[in-house]
Specification:
This protein has 477 residues and is α+β, with helices and mostly antiparallel strands. The protein has twelve helices and 18 strands. It has a domain of 225 residues: Chloramphenicol Acetyltransferase, CATH 3.30.559. 27% of the residues lie in helices and 23% in strands. Strands 6, 9, 10, 11, 12, 13, 16, 17 and 18 form a nine-stranded mixed sheet that branches. Strands 5-7-8-2-14-15 form a six-stranded mixed sheet. The chain starts with 9 loop residues before the first strand and ends with a strand.
Length: 477
């Protein structure tokens, strides 16, 4: 059979596919931003359209499956018939708080403690981020020839909800953050010619791709089966937000660093290491006599790794998936009770430093991943357990400034306040269901002036064990 030619008028860069991308290929992600101001939806639409057309044309691509391979089809010229992005707007003339039946925002809960963490149940805010009529499966996205990004604005007098929906194969968290940072710069008056974008033919992973693209058929259950036995005894999965005060983290870090220095050590730990170490103790510390090996998998942005050739040490403004796994030496489950937060944080930091110090190993892992998309390595061997974590702080969602699109009330000074992101609300769906993410997951979402926010997915028994073990966690909503 002769190969199918591409449609006229498009560029056709391939979608780099690893086994992890295959497993997640049907996932549709909505990145929800809650901005603390009424924004001009027309200005938002116009600026992001120009940004995609001139600086990030890959973000205006269509996804296609042609000749057995997934590819982006990037219009050589955008038009009303071939738009760069799809928009929907829902406009309200009152404040969000005017209707008491609307869910409270997690950041609006009263009396957050300055010295202890808080667990916050997830309110149902999805309707405010939903883009009506968007495809909800990758197959529908391909069939509809829809733009890669669908953006929904739900505007109130005091808040604007921005929902950005796209297939996971198009963006990772840091890549989406790059797009949004460029968008807000343009909104706030930056010259578009000074904004660094991503060309349609950007292929930083080209040297890692096999000469002949493999077929895309792969048993998606490979990744999940490695965890089914673990979820069997705790089938009720639930997600919740986790709020950790910055002052508390700073106090812990000071104590840990003082202890290291008192021993004459030159080692160090970061705030994220401490946050993860604390959370692992909270979720696993009740297993005091358990010797089951625990494998910790840390997802890491590899854009700035020196692995992409001698000409450059990074891939710059690349919005696609650029994620590596940092393996952490497995430890017996009881260690999470025995070790201090400082010991666990140092264990994580040593693994991270070892990973970054060996670019050749990262390169070898990428070569294997792209050459063998049908051979996703199991997260852990039989008889062991695993947990995964990722960190979006590098995306700086909490630092986005939408002031350039702010509509000020009559009589207000135009420079009195900034339109900042108050909260980040992520949603992942697969098919027609919200994903009950089966893998144990911990995702650091954002930081505000007072705290760092994360989201955790765990079994109901795990949550109950945490409540019994610690009284410091306060549940709200």
């Amino acid at each position: 059979m002769l190969p199918t030619p591409p449609p006229p008028g498009v560029h056709t860069p391939p979608i780099p596919i690893t086994a992890l991308d295959h497993v997640m290929r049907d996932i549709i992600v909505t990145n929800g931003l809650i901005v603390d101001a009424r924004l001009d939806a027309c200005k938002l639409e116009n600026t992001i359209t120009v940004l995609i057309e001139r600086k990030f044309p890959r973000a205006g691509a269509r996804i296609a499956f042609r000749n057995g391979v997934y590819e982006f089809q990037v219009p050589q010229k955008f038009s009303t018939d071939m738009p760069a992005v799809r928009f929907t707007v829902e406009n309200h003339v009152e404040a969000y708080s005017a209707d008491p039946s609307r869910p409270k925002l997690p950041v609006d809960l009263a009396e957050f403690s300055a010295s202890s963490p808080t667990i916050v149940n997830i309110p149902n805010l999805e309707p405010y981020f939903c883009c009506p009529g968007s495809p909800i499966t990758l197959a529908e996205w391909i069939e509809s020839k829809a733009p890669l990004m669908h953006v929904h604005f739900c505007v109130f007098n005091d808040l604007t909800f921005i929902g950005i929906t796209a297939p996971h194969v198009g963006f990772d968290g840091v890549g989406m953050g790059m797009m949004l940072q460029a968008w807000t710069r343009l909104l706030n008056g930056a010259d578009i010619d000074e904004i660094v974008g991503m060309d349609w033919d950007s292929e930083p992973f080209k040297s890692f791709l096999p000469r002949h693209s493999p077929a895309t058929a792969i048993p998606k259950s490979v990744f999940g089966n490695g965890q089914l036995w673990q979820a069997f005894g705790d089938p009720e999965q639930r997600h919740a937000f986790v709020r950790l005060p910055k002052q508390l983290l700073a106090d812990w870090k000071r104590q840990i660093m003082d202890e290291l220095q008192s021993r004459g050590s030159t080692e160090w730990v970061g705030t994220s290491d401490i946050l993860l170490a604390w959370w692992y103790k909270e979720t696993l510390g009740h297993r005091v006599n358990d010797t089951t090996p625990m494998h910790l998998l840390l997802l890491s942005d590899i854009r700035n790794q020196p692995i992409f050739g001698s000409a450059t040490e990074s891939i710059g403004q690349y919005i696609g998936n650029a994620i590596g796994f940092i393996p952490v030496r497995p430890i017996p489950m009881r260690v999470f009770n025995d070790w201090s937060v400082g010991q666990l944080a140092l264990h994580l930091r040593r693994a991270i430093n070892t990973y970054h110090a060996n670019p050749a190993r990262i390169q070898a892992g990428l070569h294997y991943a792209f050459a063998n998309p049908e051979k996703l390595r199991l997260p852990c061997p039989a008889g062991a357990e695993w947990k995964m974590s990722t960190n979006w702080l590098a995306a700086d969602f909490g630092g986005l400034d939408f002031s350039g699109a702010q509509i000020h009330p009559r009589g207000a000074q135009t420079n009195s306040t900034k339109a900042r992101v108050r909260f980040v609300y992520p949603t992942m769906t697969e098919g027609r269901k919200r994903l009950p993410i089966r893998e144990p997951s911990f995702k650091v979402l954002m930081e505000d002036e007072e705290a760092i926010w994360a989201i955790h997915g765990g079994g109901e028994k795990e949550w109950n064990n945490m409540r019994r073990r610690r009284n410091a966690l306060e549940t709200k909503l």
